[in-house]
Amino acid sequence: MVIVTIAHPHGDTRPETRANRSLMGIILSDLGRRDAAGFHVNFWHWRALVEAIRRLDVLPGTRVDGLHEPFCGNGLTQEESRFAADKLEACLLPTLAEDDRLLLDGRLTRDPDDGTFYKGEDAHKNYSTNRAVLLAFIRFLRGCGGFEVL
Fold first, then answer.
1. Burial class (CB in 10 A: 0-12, 13-18, 19+), 44
2. What digits encode the pLDDT tens for the residues 35-67?
């Protein structure tokens, strides 16, 4: 796992929230079109998306683990991307309503994300995704020539 440390953008006087840490993110670089914009997603959504792929048993666990490690040459081939898109669309998308959030452990909630930055045993509460991000991710997977995680 890569741990990123950034300076608090507003000094130490503001409470620490995920919104204050919005500089963290993942870029999926399209291997078929290096000049394309790729797919940009914040770290909080990305972890939930990767774990959704794991739960759908789309890829071997070691391949999924690599998706959590940017800048290491990890990613998916075009074939793997299409297969992941098919499984996400068929198995996960129908269960996720417009106002639902998919949590890191696969549970769904309608509780809004309040931006609290959880630490310690509650750190898993920081990660979730929603239908709009999932749809954008599926579209990217269908259109890319494979990707590398940056």
1. buried
2. 888 999 999 999 999 999 999 999 999 999 999
CA 86 to chain centre: 17
pTM above threshold 0.85: no
Helix (H) or strand (E) holding 112, with range, is none
Q: How many CA atoms lie within 13 A of 38 on its CB side?
A: 17
Q: Is 149 exposed, middle or buried (0-12, 13-18, 19+ CB in 10 A)?
A: buried
- CA–CA–CA angle 14, 18, 20 (5° rounding): 40
Which residue, 74, 84, 83, is CA-closest to 31?
Answer: 74
Half-sphere exposure of 23 (CA within 13 A, CB side): 9
